[in-house]
Every structure is written in structure tokens, then in C-alpha cells.
Amino acid sequence: MEIRPIASALMRNKSAMVLIALQVAITLAIVCNSVFIILQRIEKVNRPSGLDDSSIFSIASSGFAANFDLDGTIRSDLDAIRAMPGIVDATPINSVPLSNGGWSEGLSDKPEGTTLKDRKQEQTSIYMVDEHAVKAMGVELVAGRNFNASDVTVRTQDDLGKVESIIITQELADKLFPEGAVGKSLYAGGIVDDKRPVTVVGVIRRLQAPWVGWDKVEHATLVPAILQGEGGSRYLIRAEPGQRDKLMPLVEKKLTEINTGRIVRDVESLQQTRADSYRQDRAMSVILGTVIVALLIVTGLGIVGMASFWVTRRTKQIGTRRALGARRFDIRRYFMLENAIVIGIGLVLGALLTYGFNLWLMQHYELPRLAWYYLPIGAVTMLLLGQLAVSGPASRASRVSPAVATRSV
Question: What is the SS3 assignment for 35?
């Protein structure tokens, strides 16, 4: 075997061997963790919201006229929107899903004052809507019933109203009541008096919170209440398939005509809202992808350059081996094996750096642990890259003529 002469040759070129091994190790650590982060971001961006994303848009208005009738305007707006051809349904809403701005609250199966160890409590986003919300959002009701018109109350910032029923998501229901949530009572100080319970009347399969980076993004609660803020209102509107873009300007025009004492604003599709909220995640994926490609190219070029240098320095030695009967295959194999040894040293060091880097990311950025299969896949990729990079110089070495051995170099 050629291991001993290869090792001896590498010991005479320690600096080059160390540089290539370090380059491979650093590249492996960065590539494995970067690919892991990219796939995490892709999964995050593509997770279903639970809504009919492609058909929904939102619109808001702010009244400025003296004696602006917010309650009457909301009712007129909704009647007009729902009567328009191509509209499936519409609901008033306090915040738009996936918009990164909204209201959260704690839900508990016991009233305030009960010790924490004796009660279950979960954080949830709050959507204040009317009885049309389930249809307007396109969410799937999997248990219980929808709101009735009699369930809907009106509330202000100071008056909590008289909410008696709520609808929660499946994930939230499983956390609070694994045996079944419909008919159970919950307490929430921000929705009603924290000493008075509200009843879970329905469970929807999925509805995401406004905050896409929240670890409880699947915790959402529909509250049958129309929030009357300071002269402002917001609606979530669902169009028939393919009609959204045509209807958005028509709805804006209709609301402007209904009441000229307000500003109609923020007309935006839910897909655009989603894209804006996930912009940073997509940008990070692109940046990390660029870093990965750049590192692989630099590492490959480094291996090519070092192998070419070794071939140039050993031209006479190669010629001598060829004169003594070494075949082209033997010369090529020598350089491929030598490169594999150097890459192998880099991979061992890279394995330690990979998990060390992942541990640092877990501690500082709350990333999950790197799955075990990333390292072997990354190692095989680096080994193949190294062998591909050295194949050119190795082929050039194999073509050295035996006559070179008789010349001085």
C-alpha cells in the first residue's frame, strides 16, 4: 500500500496539509449548520396558516369626521361587502393573521387566584370577529359549532363586553383539554372578567397567530366581539377563487362611497402580508445559500491549487515512477488517495466544529439540535468535492512522460 510514502510526503508539506484540512473542517461546520438553518426556514415559511390564503385580503379605515358613527359604519360596510358579487364572506377583525401585530392573552382552566400548579395555562393570540369569521377565513371547524349572531358582543378598550363563548385551535385544545375541549370552561382576564368563565363552543383545525416567529404560532382563539377602537375598523374578506385581485379595488371604492368621513387604507392580500412577514426568513435562506456555494467553490479551488502545486514539485518523481513501470492509473490513484487522507483529517476536525457550532447556536439563538444525518451527508459531500477537485491535477500528473526522469528540473 502507498499509505506510508503518502504520509511521509505529507509530513514534508505540513503547512499545506494543515491549511487544506482546516479549510475542509470550517467549510463542513458552516455548510452543515447553514443547510440545517435553511431547511428550518423553508419549513417555517411553507407551513400552512389554516386560512384560504390565496383568496383573502384585508382592508382598514379610520374615521376623521365629527360625530363619526363607527358602529353604524361597520354594519353598513359589512352589509355592502357581503352583497358584492364574488365575495364569499367578510368579518370585522382586530388584527390580521401573519401580520406580526396583534393581541395575545393567557387562557386557563381555573380562575385567577388558583395556584399555578393546580391549573393549566397557555398563551394564545386573540382574534375578535363576528359569526361570519369561520367562513370568511376559510378555517375548518372540526368540533362543536360556529358562533351565532347572539354570541357576538360589542366592546371597547375600556368595556370588556359580555363574551360567553370562544372557538380555539386544535393544538390549543389538545394542550388544555386532551380529552376534548367543546363545552369546557376557560378563564381569560383580557377577554372577560377573570372570575367569569367563557365556554369553548368550537374547535378549528388550524389558525396561525399574527407573529410568525412565535413558538406558539398555532395557538389562536376566536372571540365573538366587535372591537370599536378610536374611530377605526378592519375587515378580513374572502373572495371566490380567482376573484381576489379584481375585487380589492372595488371594495376599496365601495367603502369610500359609503362614508366619506374616513380614510380607507391598507388594502392588502393575505399572501402579501405573509410574504412581508417572512421576508427576513427568505433573505436569510438566500444569504446562507450564497455563503454555502461560495465556501464550496473556495474550498474546491484551494484543493485544486494545492494539488497542482504538489504535482509541479513532484514532476521528476512522477517521471521516475513512470520509468520504473508505474501506470497512469497508479499515479492518479496516488494523488487521489493522498487528497482523501487530507480531506479525512479535515472531516474529523470538522465533525467537532460542526457540533460545537450547533451547540453555540442552540445557546444563543434557540435553534434545535442538529439532526444526526446532516454530518455524514456533509462529510460525503466534502469528500466527493475534494476528489472531484483533485481529479484534474491527478490526471495531469498521470500524463507525465517517463522521459522527464532523465531531465533536471
Answer: helix
Q: Which residue has the higher pLDDT, 71 or 183?
A: 183
Q: How far is residue 317's CA from residue 403's CA, in Å, rounded to a whole number?
A: 11
238-277 per-position pLDDT tens digit:
999 999 999 999 999 999 999 888 999 999 999 999 999 9
Report pTM: 0.83
122 Cβ contact list (under 8 Å, min separation 6): 106, 107, 108, 172, 175, 176, 216, 219
As a whole number, the mean pLDDT across the chain is 89
Indicate whether 406 pLDDT > 70.
no
Could you tell me where the beta strands, DSSP code E, fall in 93-212? 103-108, 121-129, 141-144, 153-155, 165-169, 185-186, 198-204
Q: What CA–CA distances, in Å, run from 183 to 130, 213, 219, 320? A: 20, 31, 18, 89
As a whole number of angstroms, the distance between CA 244 and CA 238 comes to 8
Q: How far apart are CA 91 and CA 393, in angstroms?
A: 68
Check: CB of residue 378 under 8 Å from CB of residue 354: yes
Q: Pairing mode, if any, of strands 165-169 and 198-204?
A: parallel
List, for residues 381-401, the tens digit of each pLDDT value. 999 999 999 999 988 888 888
What does the pLDDT read at residue 304? Answer: 92
- Other C-beta atoms closer than 10 Å to the C-beta of 40 total 15
Q: Which residues contact 319 (CB under 8 A, 6 or more apart)?
A: 400, 401, 402, 403, 404, 405, 406, 407
Q: Is 128 helix (H, G, I), strand (E, B) or coil?
A: strand
What is the arrangement of strands in the sheet containing 262-269, beginning at the earlier edge strand?
87-92, 232-239, 56-63, 262-269
Long-range contacts of the stretch 291-297 (C-beta < 8 A, 24+): 291/30, 291/34, 292/30, 292/31, 292/34, 292/35, 295/27, 295/30, 295/31, 296/27, 296/31, 296/385
Structure-model confidence comparison of residues 314 and 336, the more confident one:
336
Residue 409 pLDDT class (50, 70, 90 cuts): very low
Cα–Cα distance for residue pair 20/24, rounded to 1 Å = 6
Assess contact for 28 and 382: CB atoms under 8 A. Answer: yes
DSSP 205-228: S----S-TT-TTTT-EEEEEEEE-
For residue 193, is pLDDT > 60? no
